[in-house]
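INPUT
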Amino acid sequence: MTDSTTAVDAASGSPSWLADARQRGSFRRAVRRWYARHRRDLPWRRHRSLYRVWVSEIMLQQTQAATVVPYYQRFLKSFPSVRRLALADEEQVLRAWEGLGYYRRARNLHQAAKQVVRDLQGRIPRTREQLQALPGIGRYTAAAILSFALDQPHAILEANTRRLYRRLLAASSEAGSDRSLWAFAETLLPRVRIADWNDALIDLGATLCSPRQPQCSRCPLTRWCGAFTSGDAESFGTAKPATETTPLEELAIIVESGGKVLLRERREGEWWSGLWDFPRIRLSDAESAADFDRLRSRFLQETGIEIDTAVSLPTLRHSVTRYHIRLQCLRAEADNRTDDRLRNGYRWIDREQLERLPLTATARKMAQWLSTGGVD
DNA sequence: TACGCGTGGGT
DNA sequence: TACCCAAGCGT
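OUTPUT
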């Protein structure tokens, strides 16, 4: 190996070794040798079908593998086939997804399953174009499904491989555009054993080529790595400028009346649409949770229900994209329970139903307080 | 092209 | 504690 291995061809912007078939072969063997010894044992790699890989890939979008594992296993138990998924109610599907976030994924997956059963006799498409026509499946997911389930020759580009390729190319976030990274991935793609190849690159990116403190000393690819050669591998791992966050103050109230609690299904276009939530009020800068009379009147406006006193519960903190929400929680009794006064879609729900309904993450925590009779 | 979308793990 | 980040897609 010479010092010029990681040199970059000025015209194409790609490293000079990439044009050399022998070098590409050497690179591929290094990847495969590493994978043979270090592959992760993940449930969606055990017995692969189009359906199972599809479910796993949707769950894995923007979500770490370790987080997905228990959800994947439960989901397949509840919905073992595309037909069973298509027959399910959306509420059941969202309940199985609850806690994973990005609930649009679950609704798209459910819609797509219904489409496959209704229009395609239950046969999941086997081409990238047809897969990408289904909701929730983009270029990466289509390529992943076909390569993992059927070993079709499609390159992939996602968070792990994107970081790995940026480092290999010593590309800054501007130079390392998705267009050039996809092209790089396709040039590297071997002719056979594509599923293993794509898994290998993902595992390398996930376990060695991590965003911070990459394990270059254990990496089989340092000979070809521009970032390693530059001596500053870490700096290529993160790219995004931090977006400014906005703090929000909100109030949530558990209101009980005769064994029922007040809940509302979040509507289309709102955050957490399709999930159920306790009554929630956005507090302006001028409003304070300590001003109970004011809150009482805001609550009446929001729900149509009057409360007299309330007990404080813990304050929860959570984020939605660029908003950091401080959610103050209260518990109260309703003065009455006349359904005809309810507004904005609020409903009285049996406490036992809380187990069955899909709740937002904060609502689930509050429901736990309710069922255990206290706070952790 | 850039932003909205959720949550939990890691540091 | 308060960040950063994750097997992306849709608009």
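end of record. Residues 166 and 175 of chain A are 9 Å apart (CA to CA).
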